[in-house]
Amino acid sequence: MIGIFDSGVGGMTVAHAIEKALPDLNLIYFGDLARTPYGSKSCETIDRYARENIDFLISKGATLIVIACNSAASVVTSKTLAAFDLPVFDVIAPAVRRVEQLAGNSGKKLRVGVIGTRATVKSGVYAKKIGQVCPESTVISAACPLLVPLVEEGWLNKRETKMILRRYLHPLRIKQVEALVLGCTHYPLLKGLIQPKIGKRVTVIDSSEEVAASLKHYLETHSEFAGSLEKGGEKRFFVSDVTDAATLTAKKIFGRPIKLTRI
What are the residue ranges spanned by the domains of the chain? Predict the structure, then answer.
């Protein structure tokens, strides 16, 4: 079974993308709504939350883990990952590979914008990893701490959300970025607002789509492991708190009512 976790409902964009890419596979999702947002927490606290979340998913039968939280993926320690003897995917590496593809296709230096939580931006993980594969590119990162709470509250099309987005994206637009990495799985829910504000010529990289494609490729090239995964298309969603906004946002992401089980 595929296990996915995030600090809240944003990671459901990853779950939905994986569902579309691999509809026959069973998956289990955990959204840590009671402790969201992770982006404002210390690295040590986020790492501890990640260990607890992975333990929970394994207890429910997960044999492959997707860290659908950029804040967690950017700070989780190798010691934590080494404690779990199973494949672990995150949302950062696939997005970086997409940047590498764009740079290779364009044959020139890229100006890459990255937006994310304070924890993700402070970690410098995107700048570091993009620099490793595209040393000629320039990475401009911007922390957008207000966006996760706005998404969690379901304020996806409010005037205030549009104003805050404009403020966050303006410096990146002025610097004429050519690609923009959505460094938080909550942000795809705002993609319809982000694209026109950053500019239609900018390639917006949605990490949820990239990780789904990466996972599908992995399973296609690891047939023995893929064959061990449970099939039937069963989807289960657990959260550490249930709110009306989370229920509505989940329905918006999947296009159908989603039962959120509180644990």
Answer: 2-90+209-262, 92-207
